[in-house]
Amino acid sequence: MAEILRVEHLKKNFSVPGDRGKKRSFSAVNDVSFSVERGGCFGLVGESGSGKTTTGRTVLRLTEPTAGRIFFDGTDITDADMRPYRRKMQIIFQNPAGSLDPKYQVGDVVSEGMRANGLYGSRAERLRRAADLLRQVGLSEDDLRRYPGEFSGGQQQRIGIARALAVDPSFIVCDEPVSALDVSLQAQIINLLKALQQERGLSYLFISHDMAVVRHMADRIGVLFRGCLVECGETMEVLSHPAHPYTRALIAAIPAADPDRAAAKIHALRPAAPAEAGEGCAYAARCPYAKEVCRLERPVEREIGPDHSCCCHLFS
Ligand SMILES: Nc1ncnc2c1ncn2[C@@H]1O[C@H](COP(=O)(O)OP(=O)(O)OP(=O)(O)O)[C@@H](O)[C@H]1O
Ligand SMILES: [Mg+2]
């Protein structure tokens, strides 16, 4: 089977404070469908608040979906008991410092998942295995007995990667794994993730607000705007023939003259206006090509090429 993960019509609503103390429902992820190939990397790109983390967490059932279905390795896990799947589906977080418990030695941080999953007989064996993992991510056995706070941001992210690998997953959600790092360190961690992917045949859902980072990492990408997947397809195809006006704006923001800076900071684009509950296209208020229909009707996803789809009235 070619797919390791498939998401169909995923929705996630949050209850947020509304008028006069009442609650209202806010749609963070709105009818999102995509798949991750086995051994592949699907990049999910979009500006802050577009629903990337919510999508990643919902896929892992760390957040429960409001609607839609999630298939992992051919099994519908939407309502499943996740215990058998937790080990196979891991996550690497944006903020390595905040995601590592400062009270525990690195050896215990890395091997905790092995213990919880009953892997390897003894603590000594788990620590031996943790030492191997630390070497694989570019740290050393001596680091087992140090504490997370004694490491730099890049080293902490390596520890986070070792921890995710410790339970031998097949699929990892990488949620902005390099956003908190200096640009020079970003490339090192990206290359490490790529090498590990190849060595271990891992599949990634790689989340980033940075189109330049996603371009390096992902073989397929999906572009999220306010909870809607506006364009999806093979990376080179989408980047060379972007269809959706939002995708085009993101690509235009990649600094071509200075590719090493990898700084297509989507955040630098116009800030998102507060989400309004409209019927039309989520992007209409910002779109330079918006027509009457864009404000009135939600566009549907259309195939515009082999492994390339777009959700825009301009292509309907
Ligand atoms: N637990 C929650 N309760 C209410 N609203 C939430 C909750 N979690 C996320 N949201 C809202 O859902 C939207 C999407 O958030 P999410 O964290 O998924 O965005 P993101 O694309 O990961 O952004 P960033 O690039 O800043 O990490 C935001 O408007 C956010 O405020
Ligand atoms: Mg996020």
Q: Would you kindly provide a written description of the structure presented here, covering whatever features stand out?
A:
With 316 residues, the chain is of the alpha/beta class. The protein has two domains: 3-88 and 170-315, 3-Layer(aba) Sandwich (Rossmann fold), CATH 3.40.50.300; 101-168, no CATH class. Helix content is 31%, strand content 25%. The strands form two sheets. The protein has an eight-stranded mixed beta sheet, sandwiched between helices. Helix 4 (106-116) crosses helix 5 and helix 4 (106-116) packs parallel to helix 6 (153-165). The longest helix has 18 residues, at 183-200. The chain is globular, with a radius of gyration of 20 Å. The two termini are 31 Å apart. The model is unreliable at 259-277 (pLDDT under 50). Bound molecules: adenosine-5'-triphosphate and magnesium ion (MG).
